[in-house]
Structures are given as structure tokens and as C-alpha cells.
Amino acid sequence: MSGNTVRLQAIRDVEAYVPPAAVFIDTEAPGEVFGENVFNQVVMQKRLPKSVYKSVMSTIEHGATLDPLVADAVASAMKDWALEKGATHYAHVFYPLTGFTAEKHDSFFEPVGDGTALAEFAGKTLTQGEPDASSFPNGGLRNTFEARGYTGWDVTSPAYVLENPNGNTLCIPTVFVSMTGEALDHKTPLLRSQQAMGEHAERILRLFGHTDTKKVVSFCGPEQEYFLVDRHFFLARPDLVNSGRTLFGSKPPKGQEFDDHYFGAIPERVLGFMMDTERELFKLGIPAKTRHNEVAPGQFEIAPMFERGNIAADHQQLLMTTFKTIAKKHGMECLFHEKPFQGVNGSGKHVNFSLGNSELGSLLVPGDNPHDNAQFLVFCAAVIRAVHKYAGLLRASVASATNDHRLGANEAPPAIISIFLGDQLADIFEQIAKGPATSSKGKGSMTIGVDTLPVLPTDPGDRNRTSPFAFTGNRFEFRAPGSMQTVSGPMVTINTIMADSLDYIATKLEADVAAGTDFDEAVQTLLTEIITEHGAVVFNGDGYADAWPIEAEKRGLANLKTTLDALPELITPAALELFEKYKVFNHREMHSRYEIGLEQYTLTIAVEAKLTLEIGATVVLPAAVRHQTEVATNIAALKAAGVEVDLAPLEEVSTPIAALRSALAGLRTALAADVGHEALAEAEHARSALLPAMAEVRAAADALEEIVSDDLWPLPTYQEMLFVL
Ligand SMILES: NC(=O)CC[C@H](N)C(=O)O
């Protein structure tokens, strides 16, 4: 291969790559390592005095306030366990509004005055920390001169030991709040919203005769899609390194049109990476279950099993960190961006949501008798009402500059929020709208119970990939969240809007029962009312069809296309009131989230714009000019030799070069524009001036990629990044 571009060197390095040695230990039984590094219930039961264990468990299972006296005993047992596992430090781990994980490590060891040191870990150190951490986005909730921010132990999410070849660290999942107790993180509202939702779900369960059941929590099963790219290519792409997506790159001759990668044989190198990663996840008690190739070349998915919402959120963050680290070890970069490559499938993080507890399981499972089904339909109706009433908030919960590139194409749902129920369930709700359900579509006839509600078929019906919120048999799958996002944002919203619906339903049914109305009848009337009022959100058709936005508009469903259309939903009077009522966010906290949303949007696009300018001017343009010179030299030589020359080849390269120069000038001007310091104005500028200016630069550069001589082209191409692993 001739030429000496960074790209060509990367190709040579990829060819010379030698994979790392296998990690599996011969003597290890499969699955044996599961939970090995987790301070879980089994460990606690073994190591804690009985009364302490009972007290911790009642906090976890029934939401009882943690007895402070218990903390010392737990801390001491946790420290001994962690030291035995080789930990030298402990860290309160928290989830600031950057969307990433944050941690501050402290040594267990403190000098005791005689020149030696002893391991110390008191209850108060376990329960509270003061990391300062004043530089995180806070949307005006803290001034840096009031630098106090506190972390507080989340008892319900187990502590774990994180390994490093040079020593281990005890990690304690925590909330992160300001001095005034306002949320500065993603976990605090998640716990608050879970509590609100659980409380009202329990009221409904009581009406159905479950008078003494465990605390109801939300469950979350996040499906994580991601891309893997050889690190040599990754490092030769400053756009990938700095923004997580390719800002340049012409469409390769072959994309995903053959669907030959989807669920195909997993490449050996990738499978090696997956196995290595899953072993690490297993040690941390993360229930990694499913792995497969995704739709786009170079794209894959991992789906862990359901867990309690807050634990799933913690695990999901840990999963992303683990993936990043282990991918490097295998010579690859793991990309979590929602759209790293234009024109092929993007990456989502579908949030599978349900609610329930260990006694009753998921409350979104159709039962096998009419009574259970009435309960199931009530919870389903709560979802339908919540999604219809607060569609804007759901849309806002997945709004980001990066996810904007993904929504509405390649099997990612459109920005219009609707619900897919599947034919059978939709049919039942249609019948309910007209009066009591009497028959079932498809799977034979439906058994009609004494209380007029049917036995439901357990088969959920079809799947619909274009629906943002799809019923899949025992849960709802919120498909709009992006691969880079924490699941906490969507979960907070779902929990809170569900709290509102469940509260509404419980209040109605309680009043009816108190007034002496027959319970079955009260349920029937309520279901009819809800589906009549909120049925417009149910859509089983093709979310990509041109007719859908028109139909959606007729139904009064919003189409909030970009982040800037969606974010204002956070601060409508109705939203402020909702989150305040269920004690999830006060008004200040909501405003801070809105501000941070805008700020992150602007920052993301500003970085991309600067990168586009830099790469366009210093990498792409010089390569194109070199090629132009070669063509011009060739023409001059031909002319000198007396050959009749055609200037078209020179024009062919000169035209896009001129276009690139002018687009770069336009982008430079857009970047230099003074739009003041108001968050909304800056974000508007990013959307309306920077994004189009970047698109112009890209169009010219991509046109050049198709013309410039291969041995001069400096950036690894789509073909190389997507197909070489
Ligand atoms: N087949 C699939 O589930 C693809 C989903 C798609 N990658 C998304 O962005 O959501």
C-alpha cells in the first residue's frame, strides 16, 4: 500500500493487531463469579448481626427509614469485607447532571499517632460524604462560592468492589444533593419518583385485596446498543475522539441494506470482548443476559435482565464504564453515541419498564383469571393515561443534541409519542371504550368472567419497531431513549406520570367503593372513561409512514422534533405542578434541569462545530488541494506533451474545493457570531446557524471523499470503520 497518511498507517496497524490473551480461568465454573464483588444480601446476612440485617432489609424492602445506629455496624462489616477483597480505598459514587458517573476516592487508612495507620470506616462516613464537587452543572442551584454538595448512601443499591490491577476500591452508590437538599444528580429524583409511584400503586393493590404486600417499585430492563471500532481507526478520527460521532464521511458502497450483520455470527474478536466484559459485569452482580449483532455493521447490543429501577440505573452506568475500559483492552473503541455514523442504524437504550414487587411480580402481566385481569387492565390504563397526558414530558426526557440525529429513522421511533398495544390488547381497549369487553381477536374466544372482564391471551401480539412506547407482553418498552443517556431521566418521568395516573385511579375507585358502588362496575366505568379520553395516544400502525404526522396532528399529539422544541415541556405550569405535587422536583429543580438541558445542547453542538471547522480546514482541505495539484500537474504535463487536454477533471475537484472553502468561511462566521449569553438564544443559534453550517461543510467534504485519490485521503472511511473488526 503506497502513501503515508494517518489513515493508511492505521490500516497497517489494524492488520498487525494481536488480540489479548484469554481471561477465563480454567478452574472457574461458568457463572461462579456472579456477585463476587458485591456486598449483597447473602454477604450481609452472613456478616451482620441479625437485628442489623433485619433493619437494613426493612429499609430495602419496605422503605423504612434507616436506623443511624445500624450504620456503624454495616460500615464495619463492609470495611472488613472490602479489605479482604483487596480494597484500599472507598468511594461515594454519584451521578451528576453530566450524565456520567462521578466518584471521589478516600483511603481507609488513617495514621494513629505512633507512626502506623489503621483502617477506619465509620457509619457516618458510609452514610454521608462531602465531595465539594462544585464544578458540575447545577442550573443555578448552587453558586461555586457555596461549594457544599453532599453525597448520601442509597441503601437500596448494593455497594461493590471495583477492581484495578493496582488495587481495589469499595464503591458506595449515593445521591448527590446541595446544602439545601436540592437534587444535583439523577439518582435523587429517581428514588423520590419511585416512592411516589409505589405509594399510589399500593393504594390500587389494596383495592384489589392485596392489603399487606411489599413496597411496589419500578423495574427497568435497559437494552444497550453500541458500536465497536478498531482503535487505530478511532484515533485517526478526531471527530470520533472528541465528539463521539463522525462529522464527515461519505456513504459507503455497502451499508446495512443486506441485513447481513443483524443477528449474524458474532465476529470472534467481538465475542472475545463480550465474554471478557460479561465476566466483569457478572462479578459486579449485573445480570447481563442477551448479546447479539445489531442492524448496522459494527453495531451490537447487550441486554441485562430487569432490576429495580435505581439498581438498574446504577448498573447501567457501570456497564458503560466497563464496556469502554474493556473495549480498549481488546484494541477497540466502544461508541455509545446515538448516531456515530450517518445513514445507518443509530443506537438506542430501550427502557423496558414495569412495576411490581418480589411477591406479586410485574403488575403489567396479564393474569390467568378475570380478577387478575381487571387489575392488569387498570395498570395498563394508568400507562395509557400517563403517556397521553404527559407525552411532552416523555419526549423531553430523551431530548439531547445527540439523540436528535437518531429519532425518526432506522428503526428508532419518531418524535411523536404514541403507544403500541398490539392487536389483541388494542382490541380489548376498543371494546372497553364501547362498553364491557366481550370477545378477543385472534387467539380464539375470550373467557368472560363473572365480573365482565375477560381472560387475556398471554401472547402479546406483534412487535412494532416504530413505536416509542410499546407493550411487549409483560412490560412497556420506551424505545426513544438514546444509547448515551442515563436511564434515570426517562425512569423519573415514567414513575412520576405513573404516580399521577395511579393516584387519579385510586382516588376515583376509593370514592366509588366508599359510595357503595360495586367494585367491578367501578373498574369497568373507569376503564371506559380512561380509554375514551386517552385512546388517541394508541397507535398500532407504522410510525414512519408519511401519513402518521398528519394523523397524529388530527389526534392532537405533539410532534416535538428537536431538543429545543421538547425542553420547554419541562417548565410548563402543568409540569411544574406535577413534579412538585409528587415531591420529585421543586420548581427551582425543574428550572435547573431545563437550563442544563439547554446548556448541554449548546455545548455539544459548539464542540462539533469547532471540530468540523478544524478538521475541514486542516485535514480535508489540504488533502483535496494535494489531489487538485496532482490533477493540475498532470494536465500541465499533458499539455506540454502536446496532448489535447480536457479541463473537466480539474473542475471536478475544484468545484467542491471552492464549495468547501466557502462553507468553512460560513461556519467560521457562524461560530464567531455574538449571540449574547442567554441560554435559550445560544441554543437557538446552535440549532439554526451552527448545525446547517456544519452540514454544508460536510456535504462539500463528503463530495471530495468520492473524488480525491485514495492514497491521499486522510480520514478512515465508513467502509473501514464499519466493516473491519
Ligand atoms: N432493531 C432494533 O431494535 C433497532 C433499534 C434502533 N437501533 C434504535 O435506535 O432504537
Overview in brief:
The longest helix is centred in the last third of the chain and has 54 residues, at 587-640. By secondary structure, the protein is an alpha+beta fold. 46% of the residues lie in helices and 13% in strands.
Determine the fraction of residues in helical runs and give it as a percent range: 40-55%
Shape: globular
The kinds of small molecule bound in this structure are: glutamine
Radius of gyration: 28 Å
In quaternary terms, these chains amount to single chain
Cα separation of the termini: 19 Å
Q: How would a textbook summarize the main sheet?
A: 10 strands, mixed
Tally the helices.
22
The low-confidence runs, each spanning 5 or more residues with pLDDT under 50, are: 442-451
The total strand number stands at 18
Strand percentage: 5-15%
Based on secondary structure, the structural category is alpha+beta
InterPro entries: Gln-synt_C (IPR040577), Gln_synt_N (IPR008147), Gln_synth/guanido_kin_cat_dom (IPR014746), Gln_synth_cat_dom (IPR008146), Gln_synth_gly_rich_site (IPR027303), GS_Type-3 (IPR052725), GSIII_N (IPR022147)
Domain GS catalytic: 186-620
Pfam family, one: GSIII_N
Family: Belongs to the glutamine synthetase family.
